[in-house]
């Protein structure tokens, strides 16, 4: 009966949070998934696959306080999403004492980039892509100088965070962000696997085995 209750709790956690229980009986590593679209202050339509920041942030704080968890593996496959929600997640990860390793699977686009580089060490698989582009807006924009100043400040926050948490230079990241001709009817750059590593954005190309090996190494060092 107790096992059945535990299974129901695990299924509910997966359904509500997209997460397994905080730590398994024989592991000191917790897996955090950043998938679909990062949902911010507005609730997205039910057909959208989302990562809700109000679910992720409390988990990260709980992990930081849990002495049984020594490492976090971030599995990333996101199209991007809410800028402030994504930056909030990235800032929390970057400030944790728990060892962290990220791996980009499929895609780590837009605001997924700060999340990917927020870990102590980052990986990308050969076929995964990352899209670097300026902040985009949809809907009504009030055309006054203050609006553009606000957007520029928000964009600078992203640039500064990425540069401070990866090997890419400020100049190189801006070139990727404002590149013309790589994206149809838009500006920005798409990086695939090795290109993300060669640019200095991601630390290495590798899969789950490489990511776990590095995470265990970092845990040992800490």
Description of the molecule:
By secondary structure, the chain is α/β, with parallel strands linked by helices. The protein has a single domain, classed as 2-enoyl-CoA Hydratase, Chain A, domain 1. The protein is 42% helix and 22% strand. It has helices at residues 2-17, 53-65, 83-94, 112-117, 145-164, 170-177, 194-198, 208-221; strands at 29-39, 50-52, 71-81, 99-108, 121-124, 129-132, 189-192, 204-205. A six-stranded parallel sheet has the order 2-1-3-4-5-8, sandwiched between helices. The protein has a two-stranded antiparallel ribbon with strand order 6-7. Strand 3 (71-81), helix 3 (83-94) and strand 4 form a beta-alpha-beta unit. Helix 2 (53-65) packs parallel to helix 3. The longest helix has 20 residues, at 145-164. The radius of gyration is 18 Å and the shape is globular. The termini are far apart. Residues 138-142 have low confidence and may be disordered.
Compute the number of strand runs: 8
Shape: globular
Strand order of the largest sheet: 2-1-3-4-5-8
The chain-level structural class is alpha/beta
Task: Please identify which CATH superfamily we are dealing with.
Answer: 2-enoyl-CoA Hydratase, Chain A, domain 1
CATH fold description: 2-enoyl-CoA Hydratase, Chain A, domain 1
Fraction of helical residues: 40-55%
Largest sheet data: 6 strands, parallel
The separation of the N and C termini measures: 40 Å
Number of distinct helices: 8
> What low-confidence regions span 5 or more consecutive residues with pLDDT below 50?
138-142
CATH class designation: Alpha Beta
Q: Note the beta-strand portion.
A: 15-25%
Radius of gyration: 18 Å
Based on the structure given, which CATH architecture is correct?
Alpha-Beta Complex
Helix and strand element order? HEEHEHEHEEHHEHEH
Mean pLDDT across all amino acids: 83
> What is the total number of structural domains?
1
